[in-house]
Amino acid sequence: MCTGCRRSVTTPTSVILAMDRRPLIAITPGEPAGIGPDLMALLDNPGDEADWVCIADPGLLADRASRRGRKREWPLYTPGARGLSILPVALAQRSVPGALDARNAPYVLTCLRRAAQGCLTGEFDALVTGPVHKGIINDSGEAFTGHTEFLATEAEVAEVLMVLVAGPLRVALLTTHLPLSAVPAAVTSARLDAALDILHRGLVRDFALPAPRIVVLGLNPHAGEGGYLGHEDRDIIGPAVNRAQGRGIDAVGPVSADTAFVSNRLVGVDAVLTMYHDQGLPVLKSHGFGHAVNVTLGLPFVRTSVDHGTALDRAGQGTVDTGSFVEALALAKDAALIRGRA
Fold first, then answer.
1. Which pTM value belongs to this model?
2. Do 147 and 56 belong together in one domain?
């Protein structure tokens, strides 16, 4: 681990002592022309409480390490491997840092699919993903909307939830990459019910919070002003919160988004459910950009990721901030231990 990096989750000692083996966590570096292979090449020992397997092209990682003045060799992954090993997947074409190549898109998806299948069969206990470039994957002819949707399809899960974590702040997104004009129609009773169930269950299962408190934001300014500034808060969000309370979920809302993130209002709050992408993420990223972690709740396995993109301009050169990557590794390890899957 790098020195000075904050930890996202602290695993209770009682949980660690209950494990009968160390969790095995898969890592996919993502887009080969981006910063993901650099992060992997700079990784020495992610921690002593777990074992780690990088699913990638060994030559790619060795090249990226060499460009940064390091000579690295990773032992090949075998069942029961300890420490940090590599499960080889060959690139279709040699990768040049910063130069996207659609011919390597199948490689990216093969790495992800192998990791997901390993998690689904119990071979791996969690997955940490490096950043991918959605555009180049789609340019290759593969329909790809993102890690979250791809992994949900692999796991045959209908509903998942994106949550960003920065220290104690956890922000969940009811809708993700939608035009703002499409958001109101997507704020439905069914989606809210599913999101609140997934979020509550994930906070209990992956964060060891036995009775999590969730704040649900309104959609409109001032949470609709009782219907004068929009009906969604009164007619859809409020009733969904009431139903969640009836299911034993400690949720409150709709709360006006303009004051929800004031520090004293977050005391005792474990997560905030926002209605759309830019309602919560600017606050979270201003709070912890570079150290935040993207978590997918609702999958049958733990999945975390960095909070940044491929940084093509820094691949193979320049400075690298490993903070978010280290946090993603730490959170995946802790969640795997908390789940007790190891």
1. 0.89
2. yes
